[in-house]
Write a structure and sequence with these properties.
The complex is a heterodimer. By secondary structure, chain A is mainly alpha-helical. In chain A, 79% of the residues lie in helices and 0% in strands. In chain B, strands 1-2 form a two-stranded antiparallel ribbon.
Chain lengths: 152, 501
């Protein structure tokens, strides 16, 4: 299969899935809105949900009949994307237990590993970790001691 | 013009406060998650022991600086530093990606100064009559204003209109999550305590705009932004020429910003979106908005800074703060023993006029300070190795999102929305319509429900929604914005067909 047609089918399937997801979100909103006690709370979400179902539905049908969507998940390293997101997520989940700064170090380390495309040398290790530590400590101090944000 | 008040505003202390305020505000605004409201709230206690006019000058300078600072992150990182800079990302980031980030930063500075001055002069000369505009806007006018803002989706989604509309509707549904403002029903929370307070705007902005950029950045070894070999300075002369060429856009957007600023609850983000929409509507055929068009940045940045002066009009004349920063300034005024109201300009004239002149001075000072900080911000972003930039920005997104409501759940939601935004953007569902829906949804809902209730009670629903003159004007602009691109496209198609036959 040639690359353009692969991208087209990937784009089409993705568009269909996202459109279907939006239609489901609209349907769930209608279901949820039926349980509200006040009519004033219902009218807006119901109206918007109907609009969402119609527009996502048209998008779904259009993509089904005219599969001309390009796009897709694209080129590039998958493990780097996953490391970045996972490290940030793990940092958030560990934050209440280990504190903000250690959790921030986990997120920073993940981001650094994910974004480092050059060869590691002693100089880059020291320089990048050093500058990263300065950034983290400065921001932590700014938020905690100047802005009095109750960081865990 | 009272020279005494002007000279008082130029006293060394007031100049230092204006200088410090603008610089601090610009830096605060440039950091995603740190808002003008937060900076003002932290610094308000310091002002209690100051002379009232000096205190107000400091607060006004921070506010105006923060609105401009929001443009840096919007242009260089595709992340609005403040919600007011949402529409700056539309053209700012594409400009930065093609190597014109320095020009974009300079344009934002010129536009912010122009907008700030128009707003401040409106406050100085037209405050009492303009404050009546705030009272002329009822719930229905707010509803139609939000619909006008949403009409921007049509122009943001060229070739993907249904996807854009679906994204906008999805954003509006996200805005309904949590406790309903009007009737206190709990909506769409799936039984989760975390979602009861809804989706925070700043966290959502950071998630939908910044996280996808980080995910894309780590995947490939290319540079973050395209740059010339030697990064010298921001392109001031070129930016000035462009700004002068677009002076009508600048003035129109500044007036829009001032008028929207007068409306309580609208604020810089709505002003920026409305001004962007207008600039796009009257654009020349060669201008490509959304692909790095200088006029887009000029429109948004002049409008959002004009809301500073505009917002102070109802705050000072009517005692109605339009935005959270206005409310903080109002609180500071009350602590200082200054009573706001229609007679304020007579009873506390020396304080008010010194403050307004101080605001003008601070706005003028923003030009050198903004260009200087902008130069270093640009140089830093383009020269920092990506391996440090990505984790540093990632760390800032976490701490910035946490700081808004001191909630770890907000950070997790921000991250999830970021991944969601990245996935859907891959298939043509852009983040901007979702964000527009999220921001304008609450204004639309409140206006719609209140208008409906009043219309039903007076047995005049049609007249309520379509019979009021201001509403009719906004509806006309909305229809023009929606239909003009279709009309122009059809006309172009016909003229092409004519040329071929």
């Amino acid at each position: 299969m040639s690359q353009p047609s692969a991208a087209r089918s990937e784009g089409q399937i993705g568009s269909l899935i996202v459109s279907a997801m939006f239609m489901l979100a609209g349907a769930f909103t209608l279901y949820d809105a039926a349980s509200y006690t006040d009519r004033d709370s219902q009218v807006f979400p119901q109206t918007v949900a109907v609009i969402l179902i119609i527009t996502a539905g048209i998008s779904f049908i259009t993509r089904l009949l005219k599969p001309n969507d390009r796009g897709g998940i694209g080129q590039g390293s998958w493990w780097r994307r996953i490391v970045l997101v996972l490290s940030m997520l793990i940092a958030c989940l560990l934050m209440p237990k280990v504190g903000f700064l250690p959790a921030g170090v986990i997120a920073f380390a993940g981001g650094l590993i994910a974004a480092m495309h050059d060869k590691w040398t002693l100089r880059t290790v020291l320089l990048y970790w050093g500058s990263g530590s300065v950034v983290m400590v400065c921001f932590f101090s700014l938020f905690k001691y100047v802005l009095h944000v109750p960081l865990p | 013009m009272n020279w005494d008040h002007f000279l008082t505003a130029l006293s060394p202390l007031n100049l230092v406060l204006a200088l410090f305020g603008v610089a601090a505000g610009t830096i605060v605004g440039s950091i995603p998650g740190l808002t003008a409201t937060m900076a003002l709230a932290v610094l308000v206690p310091i002002t209690f022991s100051m002379d009232p006019a000096s205190a107000l000058i400091l607060l006004g300078a921070i506010y105006t600086g923060a609105l401009y600072g929001g443009a840096y992150a919007a242009i260089l990182l595709n992340t609005p530093g403040t919600p007011s800079a949402i529409a700056t990302t539309f053209d700012g980031y594409p400009m930065a990606k093609r190597g014109d980030g320095d020009l974009a930063v300079a344009l934002a500075c010129f536009a912010s100064v122009c907008g700030g001055l128009v707003g401040a002069f409106a406050l100085l000369m037209l405050a009492p009559p303009l404050s009546k505009v705030a009272l002329a806007f009822g719930p229905i006018e707010y509803f139609w204003l939000s619909i006008f803002g949403l009409s921007l989706i049509a122009s943001l989604s060229t070739g993907n209109l249904m996807k854009g509309l679906a994204g906008g509707a999805f954003g509006m549904i996200l805005s309904t999550v949590g406790v309903a403002e009007i009737s206190a029903d709990i909506r769409l929370t799936f039984g989760s305590q975390t979602l009861i307070s809804g989706f925070g705007v700043v966290g959502t902005l950071i998630g939908l705009y910044c996280i996808p950029v980080l995910i894309d950045l780590v995947a490939v070894p290319d540079r973050h932004l395209k740059v010339e070999d030697d990064v010298k300075t921001v392109r001031i002369a070129e930016a000035f020429r462009i700004a002068m060429r677009s002076k009508f856009n600048l003035i129109r957007s500044s007036v829009i910003g001032t008028l929207v600023g007068i409306l309580p609850g609208a604020g810089g983000s709505v002003a920026g979106l409305v001004a962007y929409s207008e600039a796009k509507r009257v654009a020349k055929p060669h201008q490509k908005f959304g692909e790095g068009e200088a006029d887009g940045i000029l429109a948004v940045e002049s409008a959002n800074n004009a809301t500073v002066g505009g917002g102070f009009i109802p705050t000072l004349v009517l005692g109605i703060p339009g935005t959270p920063p206005d409310a903080i300034v109002l609180g500071a005024l009350l602590v200082q023993g200054v009573r706001t109201g229609p007679t304020m300009f007579q009873q506390s004239g020396s304080i008010v006029y010194t403050f307004i002149y101080g605001l003008i001075v601070a706005t003028v000072l923003m030009l050198p300070i903004g260009l200087l900080i902008g130069r270093y911000a640009y140089k830093s972003i383009v020269t920092i190795p990506k391996a440090v930039l990505v984790p540093a920005v990632g760390f800032m997104t976490i701490i910035g999102t946490f700081a808004i409501r001191n909630s770890i759940s907000d950070v997790v939601i921000m991250l999830c929305l970021g991944v969601f935004g990245w996935v859907v953007a891959r298939f043509g569902f852009a983040a901007s319509p979702i964000v527009l829906g999220l921001i304008l949804g609450p204004i639309a809902e409140q206006g719609f429900v209140q208008g409906w209730t009043i219309g039903a009670a007076t047995h005049n629903l049609f007249g309520m929604f379509f019979g009021r003159p201001i509403s009719q004007g906004i509806i006309a602009f909305t229809l023009i914005t929606l239909l003009l691109p279709i009309f122009v496209a059809r006309k172009n198609r016909k003229s092409k067909q004519g040329a071929t036959t």
